[in-house]
Design goal:
2 copies of one chain form a homodimer. Chain A is an alpha/beta fold and 308 residues long. Helix content of chain A is 23%, strand content 29%. Chain A is built from 10 helices and 16 strands. The two termini of chain A are 14 Å apart. The interface between A and B is medium-sized, with 29 and 29 residues.
Amino acid sequence: MLDLCLLGTGGMTPMPKRWLTSLMLRCEGSDILVDCGEGTQIAMKEVGWSPKSIDIMCFTHMHGDHISGLPGMLLNMANADRTDPVIMIGPKGLYNVTKSLCCIAPGLPFELRFIELDQATEEYKLGPYVISCYKVSHSVPCYGYSFTVPRKGRFDAEKAKELGIPLAYWSRLQKGEVITDMDLKKTFRPEMVMGPDRKGLKVTYATDSRPTDSIVRAAADADVFICEGMYGEPGSEGKAREYRHMTMQEAAAMAAKAEPNPKELIFTHYSPSMIWPKDYIEDVRSIFPASFCGKDGLMKTLDYTEEE
Amino acid sequence: MLDLCLLGTGGMTPMPKRWLTSLMLRCEGSDILVDCGEGTQIAMKEVGWSPKSIDIMCFTHMHGDHISGLPGMLLNMANADRTDPVIMIGPKGLYNVTKSLCCIAPGLPFELRFIELDQATEEYKLGPYVISCYKVSHSVPCYGYSFTVPRKGRFDAEKAKELGIPLAYWSRLQKGEVITDMDLKKTFRPEMVMGPDRKGLKVTYATDSRPTDSIVRAAADADVFICEGMYGEPGSEGKAREYRHMTMQEAAAMAAKAEPNPKELIFTHYSPSMIWPKDYIEDVRSIFPASFCGKDGLMKTLDYTEEE
């Protein structure tokens, strides 16, 4: 199971009733925060999620509206008695920016470990997650992320019985252990009883960017594709191009192009000038039907489907 | 006339429905912001005040909850097309902290000019204000401020007529000009027609601190004395001492001791643990009757009283 929450959906500047764009993921007690603008810690308090279990922070880029809340968040985590290290992932320069901002958060009781991205794509296995980082196209170096929770193949109990594998070994084999039994003089391997890996859960995230092939590739087969929809009104493509952002329609076109399509597209990072993104959702659905307007505090729980 | 607004009244950490402690003053189109924690720019948008006219920012000290919103606020002022310089006042080190935090606010279209405080008291005349800075007692260097809008003496029209001062000079004399008339072969000085300076408007501000004589002196004769009331519940003095803060009762005792008393005491900087400061106001009023609980968005307009 994977919980996600859109803590905020605003771009550029925080507004009354619209927090800055941020996503939080929870899985097996290990949480990920994606971007942390001014006020994100308050948005987190509003939805009642705790900052203590944030093991990983991912930053799309280092513009103020995506990272200005970092020192407050770290102080908040310290107040919540966190002592475990936090892994910080973001474009090259993240360490220096963090160090600068943290002049007002001295003496944190936990370590920050940095992964600075500079390749077109990079992948990290961290806790229950596989995090795929991919370069997008903004006015400064910027990355999108796919978060996957992999799922092992089906355990074949009939085959385990056939092979005479003692019951005590079954769960260890399911966890991937190779077991040699000295009495039986046999070695049991997971692949003897485990089917091929099944489809896991996948959330793809992209903001702030022009449309790119890298986003289309990342969005393929996602359970949820969360994407910037900075503008929606007719004629806003020029503005989107000028500021290196994208329209809801451009995001929908990427979802439609991704093969297989993501199950759904959820918009975030709205321009302060766009008060009611829903005004444009019908137009957007003519491009990609499973499009939805995200809003602050939107939560979803993703689970494996029964039949798989 | 002097407008004031408590943009926020929370201490330590921003909370849903309670912004971090911040005060804004407006007088003759020149505004002062005192402290700027995470979210202060949103609080300002909520009350509908503009950041464009902030000519002066005063910082009590450099703890995160008092300065973490600075880069966002400066970006906000840039978005509002400010180009005039901003005077930054605060304890020694303010320049370095600002420089560090502003790594995410590059290329501001206005200059920041710094006044770093290190004396027990310092006074600056800036625009319509006289700003008196006084050291208080916290865990790090910390200053309180009195903001005074001075008021000139009364203009004596009868005397001006008696002295044969041409009508055209009256307003210039009221503004403090010395005028020599070559035809009349006379020099007219303001003191010929102006009475002694009258009482101006005074707002005194103090947070975060233990009670000090400097605060008592500063609060004397204030129209409004805004002071930290971190705790209110019986038995909280020990906690206040330990964390170098003060209780509502200690603040009230200072107001009562100030000679002449301030007209009113308004509390701010509540601990997140204190949900309803009003629970303690009756107790506090037994110490200083004109005590009031500040709350986010509280506005007051101070004006000269008629009879003065």
